[in-house]
Amino acid sequence: MKPQHAQVCVVVIGYNDAAHVTDAVRSALAQGPAVREVVAVDDRSTDGSARLLDRLAAGEPRLRVVHRGENSGGCGSPRNDGVDAATAPYVMFLDSDDVLPPGAVDALLGAALERRAEVTAGLCVRRELPSGRETPWQRALYAEPALLPHPSRRPRLVHDTLCVNKLYRTDFLREHRVRFPEGRHPYEDFVFTARVLAAGPRVALIPDTVYVWHVRRGAARLSISLDRADIDNWRARTEAGRTAHAILLDAGEKRLARAARARFLDHELRLYARELELRTPAYRRAWWELTRAHLTSFDAADLTVDPTAPGRPPLHPVREGDVRRGRSGLCDPAVQVVQPEAQQGRTRAGPEFGVDGGGQHARRAQQK
């Protein structure tokens, strides 16, 4: 079903990204008449990004620029500003160093209208630059079109914490007061996604590629998901996971909450644990302290039952008093928690194990 009139607002957020923001905005405008408006929110840039956006808006009536009075330090506040400014029935998000591929909005909007979905999601690909190598994120989730009357019908939805590969009904977000955490809140998309799912939307899934996430490992500042050598990254990630789990549990979505715990065990924990031998002794000590504290809140069912992957081997928590020193300075509980092969740089997880979809965006430079 091809949309016939403008119904989508694309919210573009950016901070000090003058080199890329034009490409992002133009990729949104190039989606065609389905896009009613592009709202670009500048988070108090100091590199001329704001002036550049104003010049673009002067020649493009569909582009509006929102200038924040102070830097927020994160992605959540600018996105909330964009939703507040939106006048279109549907809204989606785009970061200043990424792009929308041709046809993305038509594909999402067509499915949303045909299936009366409050949330419509498609495939995101990570494109490594400058090589151009692409890796799909959560490919299996988007292998076939699907309509879910409620998120609990497919708990694996919690594995895709990205907010940018989705189209949302604007009034759905407003009615349920679904917003991003304000201020500096790493992994804000974990919390936002949990709030969306807790509100119980009708969800449509499509196999189309709808978002291209650019990964620039040579950037002056790495995105938070790439900067895993900083222990604050792990601290922020576990805290966001706790918050997301609590949101789902408070909403009575026990199956989704358990799936969120399973995601932590099967993806995030293994992703970080396999890199421990690369870290300093101080990092490893802090990592184990944070990890033990986080896992002690898991109950037995969290550690043995995964509603998204039946048959997973039981995993065991890392608790004080259960730590024995192992070779290379690692703790033996890694064998219990992440499986022996993870210590050797291997994993039983699927081909996307090394692809980190959390806290995806490079606006970490918004930190001041």
User: So, the CATH homologous superfamily of the largest domain?
Assistant: Spore Coat Polysaccharide Biosynthesis Protein SpsA, Chain A
CATH class of the largest domain: Alpha Beta
Q: Total number of β-strand segments?
A: 9
N to C succession of SSEs: EHEHEHEHEEEEHHEHHHHHH
Residue fraction in strands: 15-25%
Class inferred from helices and paired strands: alpha/beta
Helix content range: 25-40%
Mind telling me which CATH architecture of the largest domain this is?
A: Alpha-Beta Complex
Q: Rg to the nearest angstrom? A: 20 Å
CATH topology of the largest domain: Spore Coat Polysaccharide Biosynthesis Protein SpsA, Chain A
- Structural domain count: 2
Q: How many helices in DSSP terms?
A: 12
Compute the separation of the termini in Å: 45 Å
Overall mean confidence score, pLDDT:
85
Task: Tell the overall outline.
Answer: globular
Oligomeric composition of the shown chains? single chain
Main sheet, how many strands, which sense, barrel? 9 strands, mixed
Outline the low-pLDDT stretches.
Answer: 316-335, 338-354, 360-368
How would you sum up this structure, described in words?
The chain folds into two domains: 218 residues, Spore Coat Polysaccharide Biosynthesis Protein SpsA, Chain A (Alpha-Beta Complex); 113 residues, no CATH class. With 368 residues, it is an alpha/beta fold. The protein is 35% helix and 17% strand. It starts with 7 loop residues before the first strand and ends in a 25-residue tail after the last helix. It is built from twelve helices and nine strands.
